[in-house]
Amino acid sequence: MTDxxxxxxxxxxxxxxxxxxxxxxxxxxxGDFRGRxxxxxxxxxxxxxxxxxxxxxxxxxxxxxxxxxxxxxxxFGVIASCDGVCEGYRGMHFILxxxxxxxxxxxxxxxxxxxxGLVLIASxxxxxxGMLMAAARLDIPAIMITGGPMLGGVxxxxxxxxxxxxxxxxxxxxSGRITEEEFSTLENLCAPTCGSCSFFGTANTxxxxxxxxxxxxxxxxxxxxxxxxxxxxxxxxxxEVCRMVKDGLxxxxxxxxxxxxxxxxxxxxxxxxxxxxxxxxxxAAEAEAGVDVMELFSRLGSVxxxxxxxxxxxxxxxxxxxxxxxIPKMLKRMLPVLKKEALTCTGCTxxxxxSNYSFPFPDNDEVMKTLDEPFSPRGGIAxxxxxxxxxxxxxxxxxxxPALHVFTxxxxxxxxxxxxxxxxLAGKIKEGDVVVIRYEGPKGGPGMREMYRAMKYLYGMGLxxxxxxxxxxxxxxxxxxxxxxxxxxxxxxxxPLAIVRDGDKITIDVIEGRxxxxxxxxxxxxxxxxxxxxxxxxxxxxLALYSKLASSAAKGxxxxx
Length: 561
Fold this sequence. Notes:
The chain contains 20 helices and 14 strands.
């Protein structure tokens, strides 16, 4: 129990009459300052991002819950951009750095106003982890409510379509596999509602991991954006945060070594986005949890079965994952390997939450299996090392055809994503090639762009089962095919990726966790004698600052003082 509210330093006593007057100028009442917890609502609503389009409605129901529980709601805005809109051009440089700005801005508001607790409202890729980083840094009572995924679109290429289908379709148009009319029709029918992307990309992965960490109410990650249950959960979230303040249940009592390991296990079990590796490393750093997230993924990856398989690894979407039982059922089936005593925002343990959860829909064993009979005996994410990735590289075997789990090919080297995309669409990539895209890391990019379009174009050109892609950039969770990203050290920092040449042989071995450039140590050393560190691509504004301060992808690409 906590007796003293943080906000009392703002409101109590005659010396704070000026602060009370300013709050009263907005319509707050005298009773709002009498021992009621002030709950900040960090709302990333806007009309730029489909996953955030409904968050104003979610926020209204959060407020209702806060008021019902005797708290005072105080809302403030948080920036958010859409990865899907920004893919493939200069805008993507600015996406990952926003994560740090989001965390910083929430910290600044919460500390400046001495808020008693926080409700974090978001849905998408960098926004969810940025908010969780802020909660871990502040260590005050905090809970998240996400906006929910969108519904899937019209069937295309054997599954429900989504906005990424457009990039696959572009490759199909270029290769004559579909008509211009079919392409145009798909544009209007692939994304039928608001919400985070209907496939299992980074957005939905991070929403699921917020739940696996214990930072959302059980079952809230996957309820579709357009379902009324989303609003009922928002109201319950508002009530819950007031209880957390009363009980002194702060963020680091939830985000800690045990819950981070659970989140790693969840990522492996559901073959989440490779970006989750980097985001969990950043959250762990903010929580000062003393956890090596890369080591956890490396150690647990080969022994954690994959029990969930959805788009891009199958025809099933996030809505189907929700109806199959979602995160509560997955965690219930994983209890033998989880830290089941980990505390959650409900004040109960993971085991208590899932044991008491009611599942309204029948099982779907095409979406979710068991530990005894999994889709794969290995996790859906793998950390690779080798002379091309001395620190780490990250891949997603859960979305790679088993025939490509060991792949050797000839390098086709590009110093930017843009040049690689042009070459793919021009038909310059052939079977057996390994597309190498470098100088796209946190510092070199700067901002570590996603190589999303390159993989989609390879898919559309019919090359996704005969080529591979290696980069110091990132990938979207919707990508499939043979790929390795997050290569550390990155090329701009003198990583071996910098000296790869066209025609070099590269082996990707997902089974043994190896990424090997077929050169001797002496040959690599000789090439580095003529390599020169490139000048920064951007020398002003936020990206210039991020380029100077960002850590490697292996350490979460965080900006730390």
